[in-house]
C-alpha cells in the first residue's frame, strides 16, 4: 500500500514539474498534457479515462474542456493524429496498408479505411498508387535526363 502511495506521489510530482514548463495561456494545462500524450503515444491503446487518471482529473470534465479547446472530442483528435501519421507513412514508406494501420493504433482495417477516406477523400490504396505513379514518373524523368546528358556529350 505504501508503494502504491509512493507511485501516486511520484506521478503527481512529475505532472507538476511538467506543468511548470507549460506556457500556453490560451489552452488549459490538462488539454495541453492530453495532446502531448496523444502526439507521443498515438499508436498505443489510449483512452480519455487513462489520460484523466494520469492527470488526476475528472474524465467528464477533461472531455468537456478538451472539446472546448481543441474543437473535437478526444477520440476524434486521437483518430485525426493517427490518420495523419498513416498518410505520412503511406507516402514515405513501402509498408502495407494493414501494417501502417496497426502501427498507427488501428486494429480494424475496414474502420481505418472508412475514416481515412472520410478525412482525405481518397482511400489508403489510392494514396499508395499515386505515390507509385509519382515515383515512376520521377525515375523516368531521371532516365531521360541521363539520356539527354549522354546525347549532349556525344553530340
Could you characterize the architecture of this molecule?
With about 160 residues, the protein is an all-alpha fold. Helix content is about 80%, strand content about 0%. The model has no long low-confidence stretch (mean pLDDT about 85).
Number of strands: 0
Major beta sheet summary: none
The secondary structure category is mainly alpha
What distance lies between the first and last C-alpha atoms, to the nearest angstrom?
86 Å
Q: How many DSSP helices?
A: 8
- Average of pLDDT: 83
Sequence stretches where pLDDT stays below 50 over 5 or more residues: none
- The helix/strand series, from N terminus to C terminus, equals HHHHHHHH
Strand residue content: under 5%
Q: Please compute the radius of gyration using only Cα atoms.
A: 23 Å
Outline: elongated
Helix content: over 70%
Describe the secondary-structure layout.
Blueprint: H1 2-21, H2 29-41, H3 48-55, H4 59-70, H5 74-92, H6 97-103, H7 109-120, H8 124-154
Features:
155 residues, 8 helices, 79% helix
In short:
With 155 residues, the chain is mainly α. It contains 8 helices and no strands.
Amino acid at each position: 500500500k505504501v508503494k502504491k502511495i509512493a507511485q501516486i506521489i511520484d506521478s503527481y510530482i512529475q505532472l507538476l514539474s511538467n506543468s511548470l514548463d507549460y506556457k500556453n495561456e490560451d489552452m488549459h494545462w490538462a488539454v495541453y498534457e492530453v495532446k502531448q500524450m496523444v502526439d507521443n503515444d498515438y499508436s498505443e491503446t489510449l483512452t480519455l479515462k487513462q489520460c484523466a487518471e494520469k492527470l488526476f482529473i475528472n474524465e467528464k470534465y477533461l472531455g468537456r474542456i478538451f472539446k472546448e479547446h481543441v474543437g473535437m472530442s478526444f477520440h476524434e483528435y486521437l483518430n485525426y493524429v493517427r490518420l495523419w501519421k498513416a498518410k505520412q507513412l503511406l507516402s514515405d514508406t513501402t509498408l502495407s496498408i494493414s501494417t501502417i494501420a496497426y502501427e498507427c493504433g488501428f486494429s480494424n482495417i475496414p474502420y481505418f479505411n472508412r475514416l481515412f477516406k472520410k478525412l482525405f477523400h481518397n482511400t489508403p490504396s489510392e494514396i499508395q498508387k499515386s505515390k507509385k505513379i509519382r515515383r515512376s514518373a520521377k525515375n523516368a524523368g531521371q532516365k531521360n535526363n541521363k539520356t539527354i546528358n549522354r546525347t549532349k556529350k556525344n553530340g
